[in-house]
Design a protein that fits this description.
The structure is a single chain. By secondary structure, this protein is mainly beta. It has one domain: YopX-like domains (SH3 type barrels). Helix content is 0%, strand content 50%. The protein has no helices and eleven strands. The strands form three sheets. A five-stranded antiparallel β-sheet has the order 10-9-8-7-11, with no helix packed on it. It has a four-stranded antiparallel β-sheet with strand order 2-1-5-6, with no helix packed on it. A two-stranded antiparallel sheet has the order 3-4. β1 and β2 form a beta hairpin. The chain is globular, with a radius of gyration of 15 Å.
C-alpha cells in the first residue's frame, strides 16, 4: 500500500498539551517540527498516519480510537509486528487487520492521549 508519510505528536509544550501535525519532509537536522516548534524540544508521543481514512474521510493515526457505527465496538490503532492493527478495547474481542474495506463503517471518536476515558 502506497501512502502519504505524515505524523503527529502529542506534546507537552510551553503552552500546555497539544497535538502537532507534520509531514515527513519537515525535517531540520533530524528534528521533526511544525512551523513554530521543534518536536524534539518537548516530551512527546509521535504517531504515524496509517494510510487510511475513517467513514468521514478523516486521516487515521496510531493512537486513534475508532467506533463501529453498527455495533458500537471500539478499537485503538497500534503498530504491532511491523504493521498497523486495530486492537479491540472489549476484553472478549481480538484485533482486526486494517484495510480500506473494513473502515467504511468506523469513525474516529478520540485518541489515547486526549480521550483515555474511551479505553474503559
Amino acid at each position: 500500500m502506497n501512502r502519504e508519510i505524515k505524523f503527529r505528536a502529542f506534546c507537552d509544550t510551553d503552552d500546555g498539551l497539544e497535538m502537532i501535525y507534520f509531514g515527513s519532509l519537515q525535517c531540520d537536522n533530524g528534528l521533526w517540527f511544525d512551523s513554530t516548534k521543534h518536536i524534539d524540544d518537548y516530551e512527546s508521543s509521535i504517531m504515524q498516519f496509517i494510510g487510511l481514512k475513517d467513514k468521514n474521510g478523516v486521516d487515521i493515526y496510531e493512537g486513534d480510537i475508532l467506533e463501529d457505527v453498527f455495533n458500537g465496538n471500539r478499537i485503538k490503532i497500534r503498530y504491532l509486528a511491523n504493521s498497523f492493527v486495530g486492537q479491540y478495547i472489549s476484553e472478549h474481542l481480538y484485533g482486526t487487520n486494517l484495510d480500506n474495506r473494513n473502515y467504511l463503517h468506523w469513525h474516529i471518536i478520540g485518541n489515547i492521549h486526549e480521550n483515555s476515558e474511551l479505553l474503559k
